[in-house]
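User: I'm curious whether this sequence folds into something compact or stays loose and floppy. Could you predict its structure so I can see for myself?
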Amino acid sequence: MLTYALTDVGLHRSVNQDSVFWSEQSVGRLPNLFIVADGMGGHKAGDYASSMAVRRMTEIIKNAEGPETSDPASLLKYAVNRVNTEVYQAALENEDYQGMGTTLVACTVDRCMLTAVNVGDSRLYVCGDEISQITKDHSLVEEMVERGALEKDSYGYRSRKNIITRAIGVQDAVDADIFQVQLQGKQWILMCSDGLTNMVADREIGEILQKKDNIRQSAEALVRRANENGGNDNIAVILINPECNRE
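Assistant: Here's the prediction. I'll summarize afterward.
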């Protein structure tokens, strides 16, 4: 397995509210762990929410026991629920953090079975000959697209894309989505915040990844293109090459 992660403040923000964690080694019962979180709620609160979510999720997974956390999907969802409660409580107890929240997408890969959890609009893609978004955005525009009330990638879609309908820490409970994908052949996993996807279209992301074999150069190229296209937000990227074609 090869991995590379980086964040960038972008061109228009003074504070980086994106947080990442990546470990190719085992974390608790998981063989590896990768997390991207994109904070919201003002400079101080958004930064704190994302960093707290990443730190606590890692600690919870590391120490989790019991039958309810015995498989990757259950463990990831358990950890997200615990993190949501803690971030929500922290916001209630400190007025500086009132209204804070964060998106979160996390994954683990076990023998080329990808298991992912997400809340919000940070994304996970699988990229091979084509790029495929695995996670589903919890956003107003995605709900409207599903109802047939809005066309994807239209002006109305792009102008309201930042309105999310689920986030960690906003309410006392959260409904996280779980996804599982069997990886095959030469496929990479891309995890990112919307600082990338709002600036770089999926097609362009796929083209960048197909042109490069070096994982660090690929990640840096994605961040560079987001900034070239405007850099309106913080950018977080994790690239994972599970090397399933070698098994």
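Summary: The chain has one domain: 2-243. The helical segments are 43-63, 72-93, 140-146, 155-159, 194-197, 202-211, 215-228.
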